[in-house]
């Protein structure tokens, strides 16, 4: 019901729902969107935050060198897996399983191997990009199931906000081409509309697919009815065909047969065949089952997948590990249309299929979505400034939103940059080092949430944005001074994972720097008011400049 007693129309009702569904969990959604966007560069972040890997440069002999290293590191292992360097990885990621090891990840050992020398590397302890990836869908310092429920609920509200936003703005697509600078609330609304429409398909797909990924937790009733509450049985059936094919592989047969020693065939011809079959992606990984025995089998996996139907799963080639002869690969199990649909939806969200150019496009779409969320929260404050001026004071609720906006938006940027700085400043031998990187992240974020209580609203935005810009801009220099490879070196050596990270950081520095410059050159809004109104404006001077848009 409207203030004049008349019933609200559909658009008015949707406007109310859009505003409050976006605001109440907007700060959480912003953090989820920001860290989720960073997760598109998870592997790049992992490489940069381990400078001990930066000297690893791939060459033509890397594969053979890595296999020789595995002979030294794990000669008795039942399986070797080598992830070869590529656009998103500089070192060889090795994993293996010893005889009698526990099933799953618990029984898998891992190491990093220098692609240039074959030596085992000892990178520092860090969660790196995996922290942001986990945070964006299960938060931190709480049971995982709680975090996923909270993020799932917030994601549903975001989906509601997107749909109601489209309904509310009757001319949303027309307004996309309209931007009115220096018009206060109107300018912020134009910016909010433009960023919403610019990547609208991305916003809808990424939100809906996020819900699909959490579907079995949010709506478990179908599985519970069909499997009598045994969710493990359901997932076993889903993976059954793939797991059965794996169990029928060479590493699973003849477990009680005597292991006869035999040298592994030269890997070079196998790699050449893989390069011939997959000229676009090349060989991404090597798996050796029963290495060092007469039953050894070498499996090469393509460096990238081409189909979303199977979640970007790559093709494989199998060779006899002793003779090097090509063997027939098992046929991939048929995928039902239901499973294929699910794979396409979730595969788009995970982005594993994305080539470097597509990955940058997904990242930019995420940046646009992050700005959309931020501009919506700022718009809430700007829209209520005239009301505050009439009151001559700032209501507690408005002040709370101002503080949370600064701390959640600018403060998160400072905390993320601080996380990268802590990676280089904390002592490498430090106990629980990775935990202290994360603790430092939250301590910095908390300080940024408290900071707006001590200074004016404008100065809080200015100081935190300027600090974030400086911290991001100096990361390449920090990397060089703390044992990492310089941007020039990484570009020359084709180490795109490290170079991409530093280019991304320079881009973030530019974005935050532009915002800080805009705030610095702006004049408080009270200066533009008539003299008689300045007294009231001073009462709300802690929030004077958000009304001004460039």
Short recap of the structure:
With 550 residues, this protein is of the alpha+beta class. The protein contains 24 helices and eight strands.
Task: Explain how this protein is built.
The longest helix is centred in the C-terminal third of the chain and has 30 residues, at 396-425. The chain folds into 3 domains: 1-50 and 124-244, no CATH class; 51-123, no CATH class; 384-550, no CATH class. It is of the alpha+beta class. The chain starts with 9 loop residues before the first helix and ends in an 11-residue tail after the last helix. The protein has helices at 10-24, 26-39, 42-48, 62-73, 129-138, 144-168, 172-175, 185-198, 200-213, 215-218, 221-226, 231-238, 240-247, 267-277, 337-350, 356-383, 385-391, 396-425, 433-450, 457-473, 475-481, 487-493, 496-521, 534-539, and strands at residues 79-83, 92-97, 108-113, 120-121, 283-289, 297-302, 316-320, 326-327. Residues 241-257 and 525-550 have low confidence and may be disordered. 57% of the residues lie in helices and 7% in strands. Strand 3 and strand 4 (120-121) form a beta hairpin.
Name the beta content range: 5-15%
Strand runs, count: 8
Report the C-alpha radius of gyration, rounded: 27 Å
Overall SS class: alpha+beta
DSSP summary: helix tally: 24
Mean pLDDT: 86
Shape descriptor reads: globular
Q: Summarize the main sheet.
A: 8 strands, antiparallel
Which runs of at least 5 residues are low in confidence (pLDDT < 50)? Answer: 241-257, 525-550
Give the total of domains. 3
Largest sheet, spatial ordering of strands: 4-3-2-1-5-6-7-8
Distance linking N and C termini:
36 Å
Fraction in helix: 55-70%
